[in-house]
Fold this sequence. Notes:
29% of the residues lie in helices and 35% in strands. The protein is an alpha/beta fold and 175 residues long. The chain has a single domain, classed as Rossmann fold. Helix 4 (125-136) links the parallel strand 7 and strand 8. Helix 2 (30-44) crosses helix 3 (58-70). It is globular. The two termini are 24 Å apart. Bound molecules: adenosine monophosphate. The site of adenosine monophosphate has 20 residues, from strand 2, strand 7 and helix 4.
Amino acid sequence: MDLKDYIRSIPDYPKKGILFRDITTLIKDxxxxxxxxxxxxxxxxxxxxxxxxxxxxxGFVFASAVSYILDKPFIMLRKKNKLPAETYSTDFELEYGTxxxxxxxxxxxKNDSVLIIDDLIATGGTAEGAxxxxxxxxxxxxxxxxxxxxxxxxxxxxxxxxxYQVENLIEFPGH
Length: 175
Ligand code: AMP
């Protein structure tokens, strides 16, 4: 099974010039979804993991299933004003705009080794924001796993240059 075959590509969404890589076509097939989760679990064996953090909202789809299988705590990194208790907050640049993500102050404790999971890495702004939240919380970034890497947009290279360990299941060009 080639996971790439199950990603739908939609030109000019949500803005002209963006080639949107749609994972709904991957997760609507339960066998393919299961295979994707199994592949992430397999890659996660390379990391020392205390907790798993994911980025709202497509990151949650994959990371919660992985947390369940690995029996690790699941941490939600959410968009601004979604978390009810005290938060750490950071702004970051997106491929198509800017955004803010937040984490509850009591989600990650000092020296926790946190694996960050998301559906896709493009420019890497979101991933860097996620890493910043983990560090603001006193944790360490164990590494990153992405279902899709848009390799020519440079996000993955940027993370590797910053000495993060990164695993990607699928490689696609960004345009
Ligand atoms: P970035 O911060 O540029 O690495 O963007 C990554 C985040 O934006 C991920 O959470 C993706 O879900 C979303 N994203 C960015 N570009 C695309 C794209 N071309 N297709 C689908 N999702 C995207």
